[in-house]
UniProtKB/TrEMBL annotation:
InterPro entries linked: Calcineurin-like_PHP (IPR004843), Metallo-depent_PP-like (IPR029052), PPP_dom (IPR013235), PPP_phosphatase (IPR051134), Ser/Thr-sp_prot-phosphatase (IPR006186)
Gene3D superfamilies the UniProt entry points to: 3.60.21.10
Cofactor: Mn(2+)
Gene Ontology terms, MF aspect: metal ion binding; protein serine/threonine phosphatase activity
Name assigned to this protein: protein-serine/threonine phosphatase
Domain Serine/threonine specific protein phosphatases residues, every copy: 58-334
EC identifiers of the protein: 3.1.3.16
Keyword tags: Hydrolase, Manganese, Metal-binding, Repeat
Keyword Plastid among UniProt keywords: no
A Pfam family assignment: PPP5
Length: 337
């Protein structure tokens, strides 16, 4: 790929080159980087970045291995609510929807650094569908998750579901680039993804939003069986699909799934659970993020120039241990989408 995007300079690209990723080690089937002694390494993740950046496909064996090993890691989670500690003098970066925009994901890493134990990330769902490079996005995210299971967090979005993947491109893309067997494994991995994360017992991070009934507790959410395709209604569907509205109370969602919840609903949920803030994604924001509900709810969306059709920016949200939030704005990457 000789586009501007493929050659985009930046800290990430420079770091990757410095680490010697210009010529990825070939796997046995001649298709890209390979594990070392059967284990994933940081070098593999960096090599994979460059391999995919240049428009090449990872060998089937390693694609399968990444997804299979991720499934085993996700099976170890004892609930769909993951508690994340942001230690003193550190911070975590929250990313919203990416939707297969691989070159924008690379831009995130060039702007903010690759994942590391001292540079943790939380990707808040909707990794796939719509964009043309869902395969590259999800293989990258799962690779980093495998390498740093306690420092790279992945949440399920409404597009990490079979119904959406059939309609919006991921299923077809995987069948085209790989095969049905790999798609089935991705579906299994998606069913095991957490539904939400709680940062320092104070910040509730979920893909969609809040609930169609009052009094929902974190303990109740911990009891949910996440290993399924979403039902027609209920707590899981609300978490994946709901949106805030600027008024009060609950009303029907414009999406026809989930609910639209007002600022009193947000305030009640926070008070019930001793929380301070809701962070969610799921909705395009012109500036990449928006602050609503009297500062108690933030939307972060990380796919700039969404689908090539909108003029929106994307954003990253960086949260420190005292829960101070700052934002980095993502401009669209010219060239590839």
């Amino acid at each position: 790929g000789g586009s501007a995007a493929a050659a985009a300079p930046g800290a990430g690209a420079g770091a990757a080159k410095a680490a010697g990723t210009a010529a990825p080690a070939a796997s046995e089937d001649g298709e890209g980087p390979s594990f070392e002694a059967g284990r994933i390494t940081r070098q593999f993740c960096l090599d994979l970045t460059e391999w995919h950046r240049s428009g090449r496909k990872l060998g089937r064996r390693f694609a399968y291995q990444i997804v299979c090993e991720t499934i085993e890691v996700l099976k170890e989670l004892d609930s769909g609510v993951v508690d994340v500690t942001v230690p003193a003098k550190s911070e975590i970066t929250v990313c919203g929807d990416i939707h297969g925009q691989y070159y924008d994901l690379l831009n995130i890493w060039e702007l903010n650094g690759f994942p590391a134990e001292d540079n943790p990330y939380l990707f808040n769902g909707d990794f796939v569908d719509r964009g043309a490079f869902s395969t590259e996005v999800i293989l990258a995210l799962l690779s980093w998750k495998l390498l740093y299971p306690r420092h790279v967090h992945l949440a399920r979005g409404n597009h990490e579901t079979m119904a959406m993947n059939r309609l919006y491109g991921f299923e077809g893309e995987i069948r085209l680039k790989y095969d049905e067997g790999l798609y089935d494994l991705f579906c299994e991995a998606f069913r095991l993804l957490p539904l939400c994360h709680v940062l320092n017992a104070k910040v509730f991070v979920v893909h969609g939003g809040l609930f169609s009934r009052e009094g929902v507790t974190l303990d109740e959410l911990r009891q949910l069986d996440r290993d399924c395709e979403p039902p027609d209604a209920g707590l899981m569907v609300d978490m994946l699909w709901s949106d805030p509205h600027p008024g009060w109370g609950l009303c029907a969602s414009k999406r026809g799934v989930g609910v639209a919840f007002g600022q009193d609903v947000t305030a009640d949920f926070l008070r019930t659970n001793g929380l301070q803030l809701v962070v969610r994604s799921h909705e395009l924001c012109e500036d990449g993020y928006s602050v609503e509900h009297s500062g108690q709810l933030i939307t972060v969306f990380s796919a700039p120039n969404y689908c090539g059709e909108f003029d929106n920016a994307g954003a990253l949200m960086i949260v420190d241990e005292s829960l101070v939030c700052k934002f980095k704005v993502l401009k669209p990457v010219k060239g590839k989408k």
